[in-house]
Please model this.
Amino acid sequence: MFCRPAPCGGNQLLVASCDCSLYCLDRNDGRLLWKYPEAKGAYHSSPAVSGTRVVLGNDDGKLRCVAWRRGEHVWTADLGAPIWTKPLLASGMAVVGTIDGRMAAVSLETGSVAWDRKVGREVYLSDPVLHGGCAVAGTVDGRLVALRMSDGRRAWSFDAGGAIRGGPALAGGVFYLHSTSGLILAVEAASRRILWSRSLRGGSIYAPEALDDRVITGTGSGLVYALDRRTGETLWKFKSPGRSGICSRMGGSVAAASWNGNVYALGAGDGRLEWTLKTLKDVRGFPLVLDGRLYVGSLDFHLYAVEFSRT
Model:
């Protein structure tokens, strides 16, 4: 599983899988409530929920909308290229990026395409974020691009100096970008002024995580860094045996997923290892932290739920 589970309703959890299916589980005990098996390709796009609907993209190039209560099909929009980004749901539209370098907006009500624009070589795992009435995403040819939600016209673009495969993270009016070259940037969203930049040992294909006064990011070299959000100074780092990817806040800890099959619980303040969750294959999915539990999928085709201390 490559995707972050999505909570919906009171106790339901939506899980998009590499086996081409969308599952709805009871998040208390993991019971299967329904399965939506319509896709022809694997899911790399995390599901996004709005009201009673869930929207997600697929490797078959189709964006699908499903009613999450019973898993009933609502509409399909064929965008013609694999979709590896979580949809941005805003202004009555779902905005996604495609592997062939486009961003497209689809009506949440009807599934009709409102606009479709070429922005670069690839929009890979760069989930669009909303800022200033624009959908903002990164491209593999190193640009952060903002398109107006209203008509898809380009409002601005920013040269990040390296391929952006994940992100951006947006917090406190600042974009945080980690390129595959190892460069991590803090960029003021309003002016696109670089506040600080750091070159880390190892690039990343995932977005950094902005947590309180720090930015947490994993790298291809296996290092997890905590950087000061104001200055970019290293506060701590942790070395795992495999490529480190996605990091999520978990109470007073950070959950760091690794391609060696483990998820590491690290102290948010000092980066010390607190405990390890071991799975049978790579953990490339995005962890979900909710109500004292960590939910994370592995390439062993299992979803794990782990309770943790919230202090």
Observations:
- The chain has a mean pLDDT of 91.
- The two ends are 29 Å apart (CA to CA).
- Residues 205-311 form a domain with the Lipocalin fold (CATH 2.40.128.630).
